[in-house]
Amino acid sequence: MGFKSGFITLVGRPNAGKSTLINNLVNDKIAIVTNKPQTTRNIIRGVRTDEDSQMVFMDTPGIHKPKHKLGGSMIAKSYNSFNDADLVYYVIDATQKFGPGDQFVLDKLEKVDKPVFLILNKIDRFSSDQLLELLVAWQERFNFAEMIPISALKDLNVEQLLTVTKTYLEDDLKYYADDQVTDQGEDFLLSEIIREKLIFAMEEEIPHSIAVIIERKKQTKDRLIVDALIAVERDSQKGMVIGKGGHVLKKVGMLARRDMEAKFQTKVFLKLYVTVEKDWRNNPKKMEQLSHSDE
After folding, report:
1. Is 179 domain-assigned?
2. How much is the pLDDT for 80?
3. Which residue, 130, 160, 194, 240, has most beta carbons within 10 Å?
4. Is pLDDT of 78 > 70?
């Protein structure tokens, strides 16, 4: 078997574990992972290259019913990713009951003229009998090319998923350098690290009102200097992001800086500022500026 390559898109409902899976597949943290739905806003490409293959994985925003223009834009990106892929992974959280949201995704996949793999994630929580029941139930719902149970977090059966995927690849071009794990730029990765820490620090709906933009970045001999702007939609949210005596913003800054230093292997000096951009998620121009929607 010669060299094989191809593009694989990961689709599914919010919180199915797509971002955890893509980080596992490329052996690096390129997508932020939180327990809040709708964390991923953009198509994030991860690249895995070995001696006989190059697989380009596309992590997509979770498919949900949008409540604003940003949500609609996120869903459109997920649907468009079907066209760019050679293969589709439909990732589901196996611990969740089948519902209308799952059927909605399956209806979309019916129109896709590509092999579709069912990826049953979080199988570490099931006995073999329970897993068999789940597989039988899903088999009756859709004509999947393959059904592969995994645990992205516990690294169960991910190697088997890769082995099976290779047999479906038909291209033989190398699209990225051997050592490249993502096509995302440094500014995007820096802003996503900050956004991840904000999502952990914030409650309920506030995380989805937050955008992060890198205003200034400078590499000196011994450190990376980063100024980042955090945009929220309302004055009350600004107060919550800063926290009493600035404690929330300080904590976010400390955690983000630690991750940046680990990822970029350099000392980081990070400054965070907060601004209010009224109702930015419904303003297409502001959306493009604040949510990296031009990427």
Report:
1. no
2. 59
3. 194
4. no
